[in-house]
Protein backbone atom coordinates (compact mmCIF):
# COMPACT_ATOMS: atom_id res chain seq x y z
CA UNK A 1 0.00 0.00 0.00
CA UNK A 2 1.30 3.42 -0.90
CA UNK A 3 0.32 6.05 1.64
CA UNK A 4 -1.31 9.25 0.39
CA UNK A 5 -2.29 10.62 3.80
CA UNK A 6 -0.43 10.43 7.10
CA UNK A 7 -1.77 7.57 9.26
CA UNK A 8 -0.91 9.62 12.39
CA UNK A 9 -2.33 13.08 11.70
CA UNK A 10 -4.27 12.71 8.43
CA UNK A 11 -2.30 15.34 6.52
CA UNK A 12 -1.75 14.92 2.79
CA UNK A 13 1.73 13.54 2.21
CA UNK A 14 4.32 14.99 -0.13
CA UNK A 15 7.27 13.12 -1.61
CA UNK A 16 10.75 13.66 -0.24
CA UNK A 17 14.04 11.96 -1.10
CA UNK A 18 15.09 9.70 1.77
CA UNK A 19 18.60 8.24 1.65
CA UNK A 20 18.95 5.44 -0.91
CA UNK A 21 15.17 4.88 -0.98
CA UNK A 22 14.44 7.61 -3.51
CA UNK A 23 11.19 9.57 -3.24
CA UNK A 24 9.16 8.46 -0.22
CA UNK A 25 5.76 9.67 1.06
CA UNK A 26 6.57 12.27 3.73
CA UNK A 27 4.48 14.02 6.39
CA UNK A 28 5.68 17.60 6.88
CA UNK A 29 3.59 17.99 10.05
CA UNK A 30 4.94 14.83 11.77
CA UNK A 31 8.35 15.22 10.09
CA UNK A 32 8.60 11.55 9.14
CA UNK A 33 8.47 9.17 6.17
CA UNK A 34 5.76 6.59 5.51
CA UNK A 35 7.26 3.72 3.55
CA UNK A 36 5.07 1.52 1.38
CA UNK A 37 3.64 -1.45 3.27
CA UNK A 38 2.40 -4.93 2.41
CA UNK A 39 0.82 -7.82 4.26
CA UNK A 40 3.05 -10.55 5.63
CA UNK A 41 1.60 -14.06 5.44
CA UNK A 42 2.70 -17.60 6.15
CA UNK A 43 2.14 -20.53 3.79
CA UNK A 44 2.83 -24.01 5.11
CA UNK A 45 3.56 -27.37 3.55
CA UNK A 46 2.08 -29.62 6.26
CA UNK A 47 3.97 -32.94 6.37
CA UNK A 48 2.94 -36.04 8.32
CA UNK A 49 5.24 -38.67 9.79
CA UNK A 50 5.06 -40.76 6.57
CA UNK A 51 6.14 -37.73 4.48
CA UNK A 52 2.61 -37.27 3.15
CA UNK A 53 1.45 -33.70 2.54
CA UNK A 54 -1.85 -32.26 3.75
CA UNK A 55 -3.64 -29.97 1.31
CA UNK A 56 -6.91 -28.20 2.03
CA UNK A 57 -9.84 -26.79 0.09
CA UNK A 58 -11.08 -23.49 1.45
CA UNK A 59 -14.72 -22.57 2.03
CA UNK A 60 -14.26 -19.22 0.28
CA UNK A 61 -12.58 -17.92 -2.89
CA UNK A 62 -11.89 -20.88 -5.23
CA UNK A 63 -13.45 -23.83 -3.39
CA UNK A 64 -12.48 -26.40 -6.04
CA UNK A 65 -8.71 -26.00 -5.73
CA UNK A 66 -6.45 -27.57 -3.13
CA UNK A 67 -4.04 -25.19 -1.44
CA UNK A 68 -1.59 -25.09 1.45
CA UNK A 69 -2.44 -23.83 4.91
CA UNK A 70 -1.92 -20.08 4.93
CA UNK A 71 -2.80 -16.99 6.89
CA UNK A 72 -1.81 -13.52 7.98
CA UNK A 73 0.75 -12.87 10.66
CA UNK A 74 -0.59 -11.11 13.74
CA UNK A 75 1.21 -8.35 15.63
CA UNK A 76 3.76 -9.60 18.18
CA UNK A 77 4.10 -13.12 16.75
CA UNK A 78 7.04 -14.62 14.90
CA UNK A 79 6.55 -16.17 11.48
CA UNK A 80 7.17 -19.63 12.98
CA UNK A 81 4.46 -19.09 15.61
CA UNK A 82 2.08 -17.82 12.92
CA UNK A 83 2.70 -20.93 10.77
CA UNK A 84 2.05 -23.29 13.71
CA UNK A 85 -1.03 -21.28 14.76
CA UNK A 86 -2.56 -21.34 11.26
CA UNK A 87 -2.03 -25.10 10.96
CA UNK A 88 -3.66 -25.63 14.37
CA UNK A 89 -6.56 -23.26 13.63
CA UNK A 90 -7.37 -24.64 10.18
CA UNK A 91 -6.66 -28.36 10.69
CA UNK A 92 -6.60 -29.04 14.43
CA UNK A 93 -3.08 -30.49 14.13
CA UNK A 94 -0.22 -29.44 16.42
CA UNK A 95 3.16 -28.63 14.96
CA UNK A 96 6.05 -30.88 15.97
CA UNK A 97 8.50 -28.66 14.10
CA UNK A 98 8.41 -25.58 11.90
CA UNK A 99 11.17 -25.05 9.34
CA UNK A 100 11.55 -21.99 7.11
CA UNK A 101 11.76 -22.81 3.39
CA UNK A 102 11.85 -19.54 1.46
CA UNK A 103 9.93 -16.35 0.84
CA UNK A 104 7.94 -15.34 -2.25
CA UNK A 105 6.19 -12.09 -3.05
CA UNK A 106 2.61 -12.46 -4.29
CA UNK A 107 2.11 -9.32 -6.38
CA UNK A 108 -1.58 -9.98 -7.03
CA UNK A 109 -2.37 -9.25 -3.40
CA UNK A 110 0.71 -7.31 -2.23
CA UNK A 111 1.66 -10.10 0.16
CA UNK A 112 5.01 -11.38 1.31
CA UNK A 113 4.51 -15.13 1.65
CA UNK A 114 6.88 -16.83 4.10
CA UNK A 115 7.01 -20.53 3.28
CA UNK A 116 7.44 -23.23 5.92
CA UNK A 117 7.41 -26.99 6.33
CA UNK A 118 5.29 -27.80 9.37
CA UNK A 119 5.74 -31.38 10.58
CA UNK A 120 2.77 -32.93 12.39
CA UNK A 121 1.47 -36.31 13.56
CA UNK A 122 -1.44 -37.45 11.37
CA UNK A 123 -4.24 -37.29 13.93
CA UNK A 124 -7.91 -36.73 13.16
CA UNK A 125 -8.48 -33.43 11.41
CA UNK A 126 -10.61 -30.81 13.14
CA UNK A 127 -11.25 -28.44 10.27
CA UNK A 128 -12.17 -24.81 10.87
CA UNK A 129 -15.12 -23.13 9.18
CA UNK A 130 -12.63 -21.77 6.61
CA UNK A 131 -11.84 -25.28 5.37
CA UNK A 132 -14.15 -27.57 3.36
CA UNK A 133 -11.79 -30.53 3.19
CA UNK A 134 -8.33 -31.68 4.16
CA UNK A 135 -6.68 -34.51 2.27
CA UNK A 136 -3.30 -36.26 2.50
CA UNK A 137 -1.25 -36.74 -0.70
CA UNK A 138 2.14 -38.15 -1.54
CA UNK A 139 4.44 -35.28 -2.54
CA UNK A 140 4.36 -35.96 -6.29
CA UNK A 141 0.54 -36.06 -6.36
CA UNK A 142 0.39 -32.90 -4.23
CA UNK A 143 2.63 -31.08 -6.72
CA UNK A 144 0.29 -32.10 -9.57
CA UNK A 145 -2.88 -31.30 -7.59
CA UNK A 146 -2.28 -27.63 -6.78
CA UNK A 147 -2.49 -24.84 -9.35
CA UNK A 148 0.43 -24.98 -11.77
CA UNK A 149 2.94 -22.20 -11.14
CA UNK A 150 1.41 -21.24 -7.78
CA UNK A 151 3.50 -20.34 -4.75
CA UNK A 152 2.33 -23.48 -2.95
CA UNK A 153 3.49 -25.57 -5.89
CA UNK A 154 6.90 -23.87 -5.73
CA UNK A 155 7.08 -24.68 -2.01
CA UNK A 156 6.05 -28.29 -2.59
CA UNK A 157 8.76 -28.73 -5.23
CA UNK A 158 11.32 -27.08 -2.94
CA UNK A 159 10.23 -29.39 -0.09
CA UNK A 160 10.63 -32.46 -2.30
CA UNK A 161 14.10 -31.40 -3.47
CA UNK A 162 15.53 -30.09 -0.19
CA UNK A 163 13.61 -31.66 2.72
CA UNK A 164 12.07 -35.04 1.84
Mean of pLDDT: 95
The low-confidence parts are none
- Count of runs of 4 or more consecutive helical residues: 3
Secondary structure: number of strands: 10
Cα distance, first to last residue?
37 Å
Protein model, in words:
The structure is a single chain. A hairpin with a 5-residue loop joins strand 4 and strand 5 (53-58). The longest helix has 13 residues, at 79-91. The mean pLDDT is 95. Helix 2 (139-145) packs antiparallel against helix 3. The chain contains 3 helices and 10 strands. It is of the alpha+beta class and 164 residues long. The two termini are 37 Å apart. Strands 4, 5, 6, 7, 8, 9 and 10 form a 7-stranded mixed sheet that branches. Helix content is 20%, strand content 37%.
Attribute tags:
3-stranded antiparallel sheet; elongated; 164 residues; 10 strands; 7-stranded mixed sheet; 37% strand; single chain
Helix/strand layout:
Elements: E1 14-17, E2 23-27, E3 32-33, E4 39-47, E5 53-58, E6 66-67, E7 69-72, H1 79-91, E8 95-106, E9 111-120, E10 131-137, H2 139-145, H3 151-162
What would a concise description of this structure say?
The chain has helices at about 80-90, 140-145, 150-160; strands at about 15, 25, 30-35, 40-45, 55-60, 65, 70, 95-105, 110-120, 130-135. The chain is α+β, with helices and mostly antiparallel strands.
Amino acid sequence: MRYKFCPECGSKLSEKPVGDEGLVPWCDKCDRPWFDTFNTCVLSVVVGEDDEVLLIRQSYHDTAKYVGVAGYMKPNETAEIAAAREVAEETGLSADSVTFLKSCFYEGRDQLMLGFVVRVHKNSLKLSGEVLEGKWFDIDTAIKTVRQGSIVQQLLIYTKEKIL
